[in-house]
Design goal:
Blueprint: E1 10-25, E2 28-43, E3 46-56, H1 61-76, E4 85-89, H2 95-112, E5 116-119, E6 130-135, E7 141-146, E8 152-159, E9 170-172, H3 177-180, E10 184-186, H4 191-197, H5 199-203
Parallel strand pairs: 1-4, 4-5, 6-9, 9-10
Antiparallel strand pairs: 1-2, 2-3, 6-7, 7-8
Helix pairs in contact: 1-2
Length: about 230
């Protein structure tokens, strides 16, 4: 990544797989996966969002991400050749969504010779002093704690909301308010949040770490422990 610096005004493509969006079905709160792709102009630690695409994705991450990227570029009035870098959320989040997002960012960066910066996705949710809580499935939350300037001071981690030892104020998924026993201000990953979270690395792309997804736990799908015996017919 040496040789790529973000001096003055620079454009970055930012994407995050599987933002969680609250839905209502039959009076009960549910959750749907949403992918986010956007284009922003970054300068002096601030992000001006030129376009953002947020699309309910379910399990169709691979099908919908590239069209969302194209739509964001078109809405921003820029092409891939005009970008100065890419920012991608590394999770924590669902396995498939993270793999699709990270691999897509890495492939685009390699093809275009652009620096690719990965950030913890929870860093892009809310601002100021807060504890971010998002849906981790299995009746758990992904969480991270931030100080007043917005620096992450604890986490990321995964835990059950009941008896959660990390103090608020909480932002993220309001569906967990009852189980946390405290209000949760609704907030989600945004293009501006991703770009601002990547600020230090955008200023010095050579400092960016490897694109390693933050899974935090083992996948739901695992190989069988032993082969099943075949009964002759």
């Amino acid at each position: 990544m040496d040789g790529h610096r973000f001096d003055g005004f620079s454009r970055a493509l930012a994407g995050r797989m599987s933002r969680r969006t609250a839905l209502r079905r039959g009076g009960q709160a549910g959750l749907a996966a949403t992918l986010v792709a956007g284009v922003a102009r970054w300068s002096a630690g601030e992000a001006e969002v030129l376009a953002e695409e947020a699309r309910p994705s379910g399990t169709r991450h691979a099908e919908l991400l590239t069209p969302a990227i194209r739509a964001a570029l078109s809405a921003a009035g820029v092409t891939m050749s005009e970008l100065d870098g890419l920012v991608v959320g590394l999770g924590p989040g669902p396995f498939t969504g993270l793999r699709v997002g990270v691999v897509t960012a890495a492939a685009l960066g390699d093809a275009r010779g652009l620096p690719v910066v990965g950030v913890c996705s929870l860093d892009a949710v809310g601002d100021g002093e807060r504890t971010v809580v998002t849906d981790a499935r299995r009746r758990e939350v992904y969480w991270a704690r931030y100080d007043v300037p917005g620096n992450r001071v604890d986490g990321p981690g995964v835990a059950r909301p009941e008896g959660f030892p990390v103090p608020g104020p909480y932002v993220g998924d309001p569906a967990f308010a009852d189980r946390l026993g405290a209000p949760v201000e609704e907030a989600a990953v945004t293009t501006a949040g991703l770009v601002c979270a990547a600020g230090a690395q955008l200023a010095d792309p050579a400092s960016a770490g490897p694109l390693v997804p933050l899974y935090l736990r083992r996948p739901d799908a695992v190989p069988p422990s032993a082969a099943k015996a075949v009964t002759p017919t």
